[in-house]
Every structure is written in C-alpha cells, then in structure tokens.
Amino acid sequence: MKRINKTIYSASLLSAAMVLSACSDNDNNDEVVVTPPQPITYTYQVDVVNLTNGQPASPIAIALHDLDMPMWAIGEPATDGLALLAESGDNSEFLAVTELLATASADDPTPPGERVSVTISINDNAATALTVAAMLGNTNDAFTGLTAMDLSQLNVGEVMTRFSLTYDAGTEANTESAMSVPGPAGGGEGPSEGREAHDFVTMHPGVVSTEGGLSSSVLTADQRFDNPTLRISVMRME
C-alpha cells in the first residue's frame, strides 16, 4: 500500500510539473508586441492666382501652424519678419518663426493674372491652420494674404477657396517713390531703416499714383488695385 501511494505521489508531481511547463510556454508564445502608430502625413497643395492688373506678388509664403497664432492682426504692430516681407518681398524672416510647424515658398514672384502652386507637408495633426502671404511689389509696404485659415475640417480631396484682402504694414510711409518701391515700376531697394509710419497693420487705402496728385510717386493708374487681390485654393492631397 505504501508503494502504491509513493507511485501515485510521484505521478502527481510529474503531472504538475508538465502543467507548469506548458503554462510557461504559453506565456512566451502569447507575448503581445506593441507597434507604435505610424505618423500621418498631411499634404496640401496651395494654388494662388494674382488678380491684380499691375502688381506682381512677391514669392508666396506658406506656413502651417496652430489655429491660435495668427501671423498678423489689424491694429497690431507688424513683426520684423512681416515688415521685411511687406517692404521688400523677402519672406525668409517671416517663415523663420520657431513656432511654425512647416513652411514653404514659391521660387519666384507671381505676375499679374498668373497662377502659382506650392505644396506643403507635415507629419503632425496639430497643424490646424494655414497662412499665405505676399507683398504687392509696386507699393511701399502693402501685403496680401490670409492668416490662420482653419484646415481642421478639410478632408482628403476637398478644396477650400478664399479671396485675400490687402493690408498696409504701417512700417513705411506710402511715398510711392522710385527709391522705396522694389517692384519693376520703381526698382528701389524696398526696406527702409526704422519704422516711419503709424506702425500697426491697417487695411490698405490703395495706390495714389501721379495721376492722383502724389508728386513723389512713380506709380500710375496701371498699378492701382482693388480688393480682392489673390484667389487662394487649398486642396488636401493626403
């Protein structure tokens, strides 16, 4: 009887060991490997048409950023980057703001009546807003565009079209002189030293020109403009 009990006891131990071994193997086989989610790419094609008769638009500046950081506001002083863009058409400093999530620029100015396309991409769904900006070249410090366009509801394949108004950066007096107008009508240097005007962004009153009685002006009726000045279409590509 004792011998039988020992045999049964030994068999029980062996069976328990096999069960534990099987459990251990199952734990290893069922180990879950977590794969981090792949970033989603958001790509937008921005088409811009210059609607003016005699105002070349400087290379179009494009920026993706958060919705709560517009890059200009009426009644507020222009940033240094915006002042440089509005006076000379140079958008490098305007696009160098560290808070921007992605930037792009057209290579060349957009002549009156012409179209340009710029593509911009980002791997971050926090980019909910778009800014488009350019100088009207035959002016002192006029710029046009849209800032903080809401892209959060734009799906792949959809197009959003808007029309831009023209603003006065308020950083340079509107003398329209050859020295201060960088576009082909003036051929001047563009940016001035210091801030010579009211120093806050306003709606632009328009070009006066020589016909309007501004003796310092090199501009004519050909450079006059009315709003809107750009047609901006944004398509989400992916």
Cα Rg: 31 Å
CATH class: Mainly Beta
Count of separate structural domains: 1
Number of helices: 2
Class from helix and strand fractions? alpha+beta
What is the distance, rounded to the nearest whole angstrom, between the alpha carbons of the first and last residues? 80 Å
Secondary-structure element series: HEEHEEEEEEE
Largest sheet: 9 strands, antiparallel
CATH architecture field: Sandwich
Assembly annotation: single chain
Report the sheet-strand fraction.
Answer: 25-35%
Helix percent reads 10-25%
* CATH homologous superfamily placement: F-spondin domain
What does this structure look like?
- The chain has 238 residues and is of the alpha+beta class.
- It has one domain: F-spondin domain (Immunoglobulin-like), CATH 2.60.40.
- Strands 1, 2, 3, 4, 5, 6, 7, 8 and 9 form a 9-stranded antiparallel β-sheet that branches.
- A hairpin with a 6-residue loop joins strand 5 and strand 6.
- The protein is elongated.
- The termini are far apart.
- The relative contact order is 0.21.
- This is Spondin domain-containing protein.
- Keywords: Signal.
